## 1
Amino acid sequence: MTGIYLLFILMLAIFVGFELIRKVPATLHTPLMSGANAISGITVIGALSLAGGESHELATWLGAAAVMLATVNVVGGYLVTDRMLAMFKKR
Amino acid sequence: MSDFSILINATYVVCALLFIFGLKLLSHPSTARKGNLLSGLAMLIAVVVTLLDKQIISFEFILGAIMLGSAVGVYAAKKVEMTSMPELVSLFNGVGGLASLAVAYAAIVNDAFASVFVLIVSFIALLIGAVTFSGSVVAWAKLSERIVGRPIVFKGQAIANVVLILAIAASGYLLVTEPAMTTWHYVAIGLALLMGVMLVLPIGGADMPVVISLLNSYSGLAACAAGFALENNLLIVAGALVGASGIILTNIMCKAMNRSLVNVLTSGFQKVHTSEMKIEGEIKPLSPDDAFYVLEAAQSVLVIPGYGMAVAQAQHTMKELQALLENNGAEVAYAIHPVAGRMPGHMNVLLAEADVSYEQLFEMDEINPRIEGFDVAIVIGANDVVNPAAREMVGSPIYGMPVINADLAKNVFVLKRGMATGFAGVDNPLFFKPNCRMIFGDAKETLNSLVRQFAD
């Protein structure tokens, strides 16, 4: 049953995603991609409980590695996106 | 559910909402920066609230990992040159894939009594994560010219791919039925990594915008699949948003090249077209001195940049020329083809860096209906995206591809090093049109000499 409920969420999120992203102008497509990189770093919250919990030793190490990698995505992604967006100026 | 668990999940709902609003604000350059900030805030809240989880008992590992990751992220974001954005995004895609791989693998080894459902979704997350990682590394190596950019194919590649897919399916079955056997873990990860390499190797340099978009989508889908494995709603929502974004961009890139995704992914396997078309006319070179007189008299100038402009680092000189032209009373606009540059929107970022206002950047569909009104079109380092063969030569490999109709402007100047063909390897009849003049040489040098003449 949990699987079905999660699929519901997935389906709705994909539709929202399509509607939102369709409206992003071509001029912002590179920041959109780097911003999406940052959002995909959301894996960090899944990795946190694995790295800090009472897990199997291998799982703890894998979790810590995932926290590190996902943080690179989050921090690097948002910063570089901000750097790009700051360059887009009106006349 | 414990109190903490309810609090955490309720906060995730708020975070999902903030991600959605952040993306909504990305629909205009004037609000986009605020949108990115909102999205970043959502991420921060999500991380902080997750740390309240009672299951988390030790923080040393987490703290160390976050500090190390942040340092790498800050360094990469501050150091990267705008011309290298495609490489950075590729690497970030790969890092995201690897993170999802690690999470999925941890989920498998952590729970000895995991249900079949959890094992299946964990395997999918493992698979997508590994493909994203190794595929992105190959894409990065191609973009940064560490390996050759052209398609790499070998005999029997198609058969090898089919065998590989079957082997992956088999390893998945074994992993789900016997999750305690670590051998199957290694086999599954190894095969999935190989799959990513095989996916990107046969794709050529010109198709890189498609590959980056596709891998971007995969990195989101990997996070999404990991969300299923951990039963985490926010992972699913955020992953799906990224996945959708990548798919839309992939689709836009494919349309802009008039090709299907399957065609792009298998392009290395197809025979190269040779067209017997004869192009009539002759090439007429022009010196920058003579070009100056035409530009001085022009009322409206359209600039059509391609990746060659970025290679020559000519965007800043172009901006100087733009200011001089505008002082001279001319209107200056830029026309940007969706696949100009090495990733979607790359050219816009490079021009924004050179201080060109986004209000002067126009998409192909906006500029084409009024292109006849421009006195001069300056093509800088672009080739295939202005090739009229796409419109008029049935049988040309790029026939049907939407292009910027530069040849319809009153005069066309093409800034080009020599007569080499573009990525598509097709002759360009634009160069032979009566209203077209070629200005040979380094684009930056040419623009510099034009700037000097205006200053005199």
## 2
Amino acid sequence: MRLGRILSLAVLALVLGASIAANWLAPAGYAKQYREATDAPPSAAHWLGTDELGRDRFARVLYGTRISLLLAPAAALLSTLLAALIGGLAGYLGGVWSRIAMAVTDLFLSLPWLFLLITVRALMPLDVSPFVSVLVTFLLLGLLGWTTAARVLCASAASVRNSDYVRQARAAGTSGQRLFWVHVVPNLKPVLHAQFWISIPVFILSEANLGILGLGVAEPMPSWGSLLKELESLVSVGAEPWKFVPLVLLVLVVTSFQVLLSRQEDAAA
Amino acid sequence: MKIRNCNSGEIAALQSAVAVTVISLGMMVGLAAAQGGQLRFCLHNEPKTFNPLQVDDDAAAAIRYLTGGVLIRLNRQTQQLEPELAESWKISKDGREISFKLRSGIVFSDGTPFTAEDVAYTMQELMDPALHSPTGDSFRSGTGKVEARVISPTQISIRFPAEVAGLDRMFDQVSILSQNSPKKEMAVLGPFMVADYKPGASVLLQRNPNYWKKDEQGRRLPYLDSILLNIQPDRDVEMLQFKRGELDLINTLDSEYFDKLAATSPQVVHDAGPSLDSEQLWFNEVSRAPIAAYKKDWFRSAEFRRAISEAINREDLSRIVYRGHAQPAMGPFSPANKFWFNATLKPPVYSPDEALKALAAEGFRLENGALKDKSGNIVEFSIITNAGNKARERMAVLIQDDLQKIGIHVNVVTLDFPSLIERMTQSFDYDAVILGLTNVDLDPNEEMNVWLSSSGNHQWNPQQKTPETVWEAEIDRLMRVQASSNDPKKRKAAFDRVQEIVVEEQPFIFLINKNALSAVSVRVHGAAPVILSPQTFWNAERLAVSGN
């Protein structure tokens, strides 16, 4: 397992490092169109060929990776914090507060959030730049993705609240606020870590799904979702395996996260 | 012997004649070898009805075409009207009445005789307001009833309350129903009849044993025994089934599939040239639209629109997005529409420099790579289109790049279709749109709802109480002139002028006309794909399939 974790870390570091260095590594900007060389196979000039509009695929993979890999953790952080606040407090307070919070969580869980995302995206102003559209997409993912984690945290917080050491602290006259921050929250950390790491691949895949529907990051900015759109036609990719590179990267990154996550779960256990 | 010098035109004509002869001979040989068989292809959605008078979708229209008997048929190849169940017809001078002389001795698929009473019954049903027939709607003119007068079993006259332009052509869509058959709309006069329907799976059509037509050799048509229509919305699956030999034709292909198929089986793909369909960009010119006033000023300026049009590289749109299977659009009608296209229109010119000059004359200036209007506003707008339409998304990105060259920043936004329609027709909260017009009819009368300023489909500025511009008032007038006359010359002159005005004013910036692409298996004999729908099976009664 140790080797697996090292490899996973190495993969993540390599992918993240390459994407951060995209400005230096990429042969051209992600939007540059080589109109005389559209849909070209890999060559010395274009390592992964060009897409249907003549844009260098290697450059787009690097920039797309940067967007997906930096913003997915940001969205995961936001959703984990919301889950901690709502689920943690509900579990700690218990009683009617817990029931209200879980009812709200259930309501959110029952919403078809893909359609909700589509609706919110459709209501957004049209004159936002592609960069803002990226931020909004991941912000929405973060704001809507806290529910499952909240349920887990609620159960964990309830368990901590009923533990002997919290009862002793309460009997010793410790204030509620101190109880929450000093005794409950630190004991929720392993669960919070696990939920954070779980959320990252979920958000990467969610953005990819939105991108495939054409509702994610706006053109010409790339993301893994928009890059994966090239694979939606079975007919077009069979003879062009280099188009699978974004998918391979996605699988590698998600798998790496999962391997690291298993360590988090072990630690939590 | 003296050999006459031929010019290139004559040589081309000679070559064409030889080619046609060879193809015809080949088709005859093929047909002699293979008659009958089952033709298999896909419908992309479930047919909503089998009642030919209520057809409102592509699947039902295909079934209507294959099963319905009509009085007059538009030949999809020559684009000319031809007699079918009617031997001849005549339109009165006032354009309100059409008289038919019907063929005798014809029976429906169930054996019920066909008479003028059936035509009268069909017209009565068609015009029944309670039926809400989309086909019937195109016949409505003025107020009052449509009167069908049966003169004899083979003669009928139909009178309309007001003049109907292109009246005879509309009968191409009217499948005659039987008044007396207990099977009602399932008794047909066309070459095939519905034999089986498995919802969500397939529709089986079998040859109509009573079909009245015979070929030149006196053999009864149709040649095919049956047609199996698989209900399959997924184009990838359709393509794979065709490659595996499970389908015999694909009626419409997109350019990507076409090229992939052409790479392995060039003999099965057919590019019939530019179709009637167009893709266009338009700006929001609605005066009450919730967008900045300075943007409205740009969008309502013909000079601005012309400059944008000039800055778009349509050749690249055709070459890159449609892989060369499209032509830069010249105006509202494609050159494929042989009669109605205004041949005096000039092809669009791509010139970013000229576009910039034209904009400069209007007070726009380029500063640090960004175009600004005379008030200093940076020229930036969004183009919306429907998510999932790859061709439109790609065109939008190419246009984004083209306009960046003259300093205009474009945001491309893809929306789900209901949201797009809501913005276009309800809130008017948008700057520009890329969408297409699918023309199924050659006649401009079918586009009245697009060009009349009072119409809801006058997309750049719909439902105007009175025309807001002089040129829109002129288009309104000309469209009414062409719609209220049955004189082809007068109608053509009026619509030619409409096309000129549209090109001058650019309310729609027409981008491309897609080519009609299809695939037909080599097992199918007699196929001659055309640009008009149904492209590959317009002559279904003369198709034959061997080897299945």
